[in-house]
Write a sequence for this structure.
């Protein structure tokens, strides 16, 4: 059985940056606790600068999802995020394992 690499997906836009970072880094620990043989890709580890468009961030995030992950970990607030919903739809298209927080 192959190890899953979870892409962490949830609301970022409109959140305080520090609170969003805390939420995503807590998700890393949850993944390590629940799935000790698995890895993760955390989009909060990517910072392109404050003047970069949402579309550019989504382009990079979807590339991370497609290139490095084979599963997705949906944070509890994902329904409030247009980007997280797009990431979930793409993960479904790719046949990824989906885990909800």
């Amino acid at each position: 059985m192959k190890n899953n690499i979870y892409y962490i997906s949830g609301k970022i836009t409109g959140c305080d940056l520090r609170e969003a970072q805390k939420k995503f880094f807590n998700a890393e620990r949850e993944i390590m606790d629940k799935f000790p043989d698995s890895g993760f890709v955390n989009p909060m580890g990517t910072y392109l600068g404050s003047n970069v468009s949402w579309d550019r961030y989504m382009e990079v995030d979807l590339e991370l999802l497609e290139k490095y992950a084979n599963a997705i970990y949906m944070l509890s607030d994902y329904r409030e995020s247009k980007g997280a919903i797009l990431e979930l739809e793409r993960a479904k298209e790719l046949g990824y394992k989906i885990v909800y927080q």
Summary: The longest helix spans residues 17-34. Helices lie at 17-34, 54-68, 82-94. The first strand starts at residue 5 and ends at 9.
